Amino acid sequence: QLVQSGAEVKKSGASVKVSCKASGYTFTGYAIHWVRQAPGQSLEWMGCIRTGSGYTEYSQRFQDRVTIIRDTFASTAHMEMISLRSEDTAVYFCVRGNGPGSWLFDYWGQGTLVAVSS
Amino acid sequence: DIVMTQSPDSLAVSLGERATINCKSSQSVLSNSNNKNYLSWYQQKPGQPPKTLIYWASTRESGVPDRFSGSGSGTDFTLTISSLQAEDVAVYFCQQYYSGPITFGQGSRLEIK
Hints:
Chain A is globular and about 40 Å long. By secondary structure, chain A is mainly β. In chain A, 0% of the residues lie in helices and 50% in strands. In chain A, strand 9 (90-97) and strand 10 (105-108) form a beta hairpin. Helices cover 0% and strands 48% of the residues of chain B. Chain B has no helices and 11 strands. Chain B is globular. The termini of chain B are far apart. Chain A binds chain B through residues 33, 42-45, 57, 59-61, 93, 103-111, and chain B through 38, 40, 42, 49-52, 55-56, 61, 93, 95, 97, 100-107.
């Protein structure tokens, strides 16, 4: 199970940190990905972390503004985005990859709404 | 980036009838090394996260009803629902995980006729 932190309302230019707590499996055995969905839109992959090593990969689109980290003791992954703009208003999902560096998704978190106002 | 294009954008099918959604990738997602297509299908109902239905283009996720099937190879893929049920009303997305960045189709909305 992946349980995400609650909804956030932010001003343009601020930053946000979304958490994803894993349970029911060995956290370090599976990658965690972050995917976002703007209202009425499709899905957009942001990046991922190998939870064992901490190695990260990012979409070039988010490379400069997003940082993904993990806390192995808390079995939690975090996604921080800086310099928020209104276009970042979206639901942010964490998703488990089905292996340490896998890009094959299996379980999804419930999503976290981030609303950015100008 | 690999562009994923789905068709149609929306479709309405009668209960018990077959529903077919297509997905085309701008480049092949078939690996020569393991002969696997790096293509998944997801179902998303309103207010819910996506649910994984199919991976490796044709492998059904555990617990997914067998009326859902995936087919295709290379650049052309199909999701078929053999006998539409009311609970299948949703938006369906295809996704490639062959090369970065991971990309999704625009979604296909399935409704009851």
